[in-house]
Amino acid sequence: xxxxxxxxxxxxxxxxxxxxxxxxxxxxxxxxxxxxxxxxxxxxxxxxxxxxxxxxxxxxxxxxxxxxxxxxxxxxxxxxxxxxxxxxxxxxxxxxxxxxxxxxxxxxxxxxxxxxxxxxxxxxxxxxxxxxxxxxxxxxxxxxxxxxxxxxxxxxxxxxxxxxxxxxxxxxxxxxxxxxxxxxxxxxxxxxxxxxxxxxxxxxxxxxxxxxxxxxxxxxxxxxxxxxxxxxxxxxxxxxxxxxxx
Amino acid sequence: xxxxxxxxxxxxxxxxxxxxxxxxxxxxxxxxxxxxxxxxxxxxxxxxxxxxxxxxxxxxxxxxxxxxxxxxxxxxxxxxxxxxxxxxxxxxxxxxxxxxxxxxxxxxxxxxxxxxxxxxxxxxxxxxxxxxxxxxxxxxxxxxxxxxxxxxxxxxxxxxxxxxxxxxxxxxxxxxxxxxxxxxxxxxxxxxxxxxxxxxxxxxxxxxxxxxxxxxxxxxxxxxxxxxxxxxxxxxxxxxxxxxxxxxxxxxxxxxxxxxxxxxxxxxxxxxxxxxx
Lengths: 246, 277
What we know:
Largest interface: A-B, 21 and 25 residues
Low-confidence stretches of chain B: 1-7, 263-277
Structural class of chain B: alpha/beta
Helix content of chain B: 25-40%
Largest sheet of chain B: 6 strands, mixed
Order of helices and strands of chain B: EEEHEEEHHHEHEHEEHHH
Oligomer: heterodimer
CATH class of the domain at 12-89 and 165-276 in chain B: Alpha Beta
């Protein structure tokens, strides 16, 4: 057994024992076996799949739009100093502000539903992509650019063969940051105002003192976050085979 | 190679006339003179080295010839055409290999050709030939981080040779290698040069390297770089690494040292001193 597995199992055991012996009040803490039972029940009824599906769709659409907009704008701002001069002050304001504070405003514009969450994830993701990619492209190794210049490469060719491949590691970093923070944004936005989704489950079952159901939603959200990060790390290793192992 | 038989330039591949280079120092509100009124010729098909101490502006001269430097004074003419920017008639071998880390050996060797708009398949075919020439067969699909420093420099050299430019510019390509690898690479360069006889302008701060490789050694003074002396090296070719142990080679090297620092040769170069005893 790996040390990691041992610590996880020990934590679960502690949680179970605390639930059974010390804290009798099930509203404060549900022991793992009750959470598992609640999870099976929610999965059987199809409720869990419905809420997970809604949250994931909001997240996926928001992130996709963020990548489509954030990567090109980030590359342009990293490559053309004038673009950066215009965009940096604007993005600095947004980047320093937790995007979730715009939730009430966005709900007022778009109503409670799907697109308000998408817009929030988009904003969060856009700035993650923009900041990492523009900084990365701006700091590209000068020697690579000199090679292209010395071989009399056209500007477009240099862009395609040096700037874009050089930006890939930063795009991947941006994707991982955007995914992690996007997940938080979706859940919190659903907590604040929603009719479905993992965050809605937390809010709804919390208000009804069904703590085990709250935990189910939390465990699923955490599990998805870990899975997504692991998947992106794998993808990162694949597209960056050329990088020396760290 | 295009190096031979270019008409209308009197057999001169490169002519540098009255080249002065100064860099602005904005914080001190003055200019740093790096190179001062340097003139020399490189004959078609010959191997010429520029030697001088660190900071004598030899890399600045090379960058100016490569077309990477604007705002110099004087004239640089390559095969009868004044240099105004980078061009396909010149190829640069960089001091640090400067390979694109996401391209394999083959992709890096083909990169210069691709810059010159050679089609993919043709670039690949010619790159494969060069990979063989620099003896990296079997490493075509390796990434730069998987190669040793010496192997990276072979790729760097192959990339420049692949474009078949008439003038090869080499910027201290072996300076960052350990002594043994450097020796081996010097021998390799001589072998490759005997196969692909292109005109070379080679920058180094190592006297023995310059003497071993060159037909002519141009010696620069410390900053601002001025030409101190020009020595023609008449050692017979082909030269092997054994050439370096010959009395004649050591003689020429000593003469160059004396020109740089009269009487100081034996103190400066430990190896030369060792050979004397």
